[in-house]
What does this fold into?
Amino acid sequence: MIQIIVPAPDVTITKQDNPVLSNIYGFTDFHLIPRDKGGIFMFYNDKDELLFCGKARKLRPRIKKHFEDSVSVMKAKRDEVAKIEVCVVEDAVHRDIYETFIINQRRARYNVEKVFYR
It folds into this structure.
């Protein structure tokens, strides 16, 4: 049996109510997410349920795209996201393994690809 241990999040940002600073859907701390590093990201709701898990070669632009893009899987559900966790994982193969594992182990609600539990 293969043992997969998901790394602890390197960055966690939470949605703020009535943010004073510039924000995207209530998140003001996007600057904490690395711009030029690869990794995995997880969107959670206010009940700490996993909504979506993804991977990226460049984390910050990819995460922002989910909030700005009109074709994102999260397009109609952006308001549900209350917390974003980011794990820096530079190796592309490791990112793919972690993403698939997290989607299926934690049963990400809005992931449609790589789902084996349905």
